[in-house]
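chain below, 417 aa
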Amino acid sequence: MQLEINNKYIFNVENNIDNVRYVLDKMIGGIDICFVDPGLFPKISSWIENYRERYKNHDNSKIVLEKLDFFDDYINGYERREEITEILTQRSSRPAKKPPALTEQQVLAEVNLIMNKGHIREYNEREMNLVVAGLRKRRGELVEEGRYLEAEKANNYAKKIINHEQLTAVEVMQVEKCELIQQSIEEEKEKLIAKKLRWEKLHKNMKISANRELKEMKHQHKNELNKLISLKNDIPRPAYNKFSPELLNMRKREQAMIRSRRFAEAGQIKEIADEMERKETQINNKRWNDKIDFRIKNLLRSQKKQLDGRKLYWKNEENEMVNQANKEIANAERLINHMMHNFDEAKAAMELATSLKEGSRKEMNKTAQKLPSLLDNPKEIERVRTATHGQRRILNRKIYTRRAKTAMSNSPRMKPR
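prediction:
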């Protein structure tokens, strides 16, 4: 058969759809399966089992069967391989470029409004970066023109905007911290309630188990005791119901007198033997009852010891459970108290940041801008800078430090154990 070679496959659907056996024979003969159109795979798969039966007893059946197994696995895994290939060949889509928050004309209008009227509105982070960049660009232009006071004015506005945005970021951070701590507190409170309910349930189940076991034990002890008491009404065991040799001899003499027809003497002997038997029976019954009483006494002692042991066991188990529950609940309550303390600190820091931000907002909205005097005295300039730096350091310490020394001393973690 003349093969028509496609762009990719030697055996394609158009030319070989009705001659699948020929394709399969060629594959067994050495043609790679990658040259076979996948459209032929369903037909080939249906013939593989028939070929297994055909080549089962063939001379080189092992090699052919291995090839058939490979063809079967290759066809079954084709769809999954195609999916993986498609995933690996997909190009990652680049995120769309975000347009600037403000156009150049809007930035210029904002800078002019700030420089002319001293009005600064609220900006988000992207807008703030553009406006600050615009003010700094204006400052550079004013410096080149020799208008140093206007340049210093633009620089001060940029600093105020940056300072205000920093305080806003600090406020947002503290608000998120408060919300996170508050959420954690609520979760820990729910966990504490769940722990209390769980321990109460365990304690209740333990009491039920203990009472059930003790009740069953008492019932068993009662049955054992009744069984022993009932032996008093039974015939004594042979070991406790033996008669003396004298009585036995008297009975023998009685029988001998009867056989000798000496009935008068036999009657006298019988009376004596009956009296002896009555007395010995009383003695035997007393011995038997004494033995039963002794066994009852030992049984009661053993039962009491066993019952006390189980009561002590359950008492120790209860104490251990209560101690463990109290320890776990105390740790959870201590954690909640510590988180409440952290929440109070975070709330105080948030209120401080809000107050400072509002003060900065009012300062920015002032129409009259008080510029720092351009002093010729370098010492005075250095003094102003030092004072400003000191105020900034105090502000950072109030906002970012975890707690003051007095708060640390009142913290539950700092108290001596």
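Residues 13-89 form one domain. Residues 235 and 241 are 8 Å apart (CA to CA).
thats it, cya
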